[in-house]
Amino acid sequence: MGLSRGFRTTLLERARKDANFRQALLKEGIDTMLAGDVETGKAILRDYIKAAAGFGQLSEATRIPAKSLMRMFGPKGNPRADNLFQIIRHLQAREGIHLEVGPCRPGRCKSKRHRPHPINPTRLSMTTSAQNSLSLSECSAPFLMC
User: Fold this and answer.
1) What is the pLDDT of residue 81?
2) Is residue 144 one of the residues assigned to a domain?
3) 105 vs 11, more confident
4) In angstroms, rounded to a whole number, what is the distance separating the alpha carbons of residues 77 and 68?
5) pLDDT in tens, 64-100
6) Any domain includes 123
7) CB within 8 A of 46, min separation 6: which ones?
8) What angle, 0 to 180 degrees and rounded to 10, lies between the N-to-C axes of helices 19-34 and 38-52?
9) pLDDT tens per residue, range 54-65
């Protein structure tokens, strides 16, 4: 028996309704890219953009044509760093969060899955604009966060 609704449809609907889920989706997309899985990170960010802002609104805010944005986050897309950072900066502001990458501190991680990457031991933490740490800064990726 097949599912009555598609996974992506359910994901997009929840992201439109739930700000915490949307913030977690944005963070996960960036975490995934930092961990080295750029293709999956782009796919997560593409879903986030569709649910949160839409490519049209993002295009107006960043002055990057919508078609270019869609290509950047598509399977064969290769966004330039300046465009990617501009987009991430806008998405953070839109969500009212601030993401930071910093050194991973062994022993402070609450997850038993965490093993710092030998070359790039980083973590991505997130705070709201009110500077309240969210639980999303806990380890969720095996090599990236703590």
Assistant:
1) 92
2) no
3) 11
4) 9
5) 999 999 999 999 999 999 999 999 999 999 998 888 8
6) yes
7) 70, 73, 74
8) 160
9) 999 999 999 999
One-letter-per-residue 3-state SS of the chain: CCCCCCHHHHHHHHHHHCHHHHHHHHHHHHHHHHCCCHHHHHHHHHHHHHHHCHHHHHHHHHCCCHHHHHHHCCCCCCCCHHHHHHHHHHHHHHHCEEEEEEECCCCCCCCCCCCCCCCCCEEEEEEECCCCECHHHCCCCCCCCC
Give the integer Cα–Cα distance in Å for 3 and 79.
34
φ and ψ of 86, to 5 deg: -60, -45
Give per-residue pLDDT as tens, 22-50.
Answer: 999 999 999 899 888 999 999 999 999 99
In this structure, are residues 61 and 84 in contact, taking their beta carbons and an 8 Å threshold? no
Assess if residue 142 is contained within a domain.
no
Determine the structural domain holding residue 111 and report its residue range.
7-137
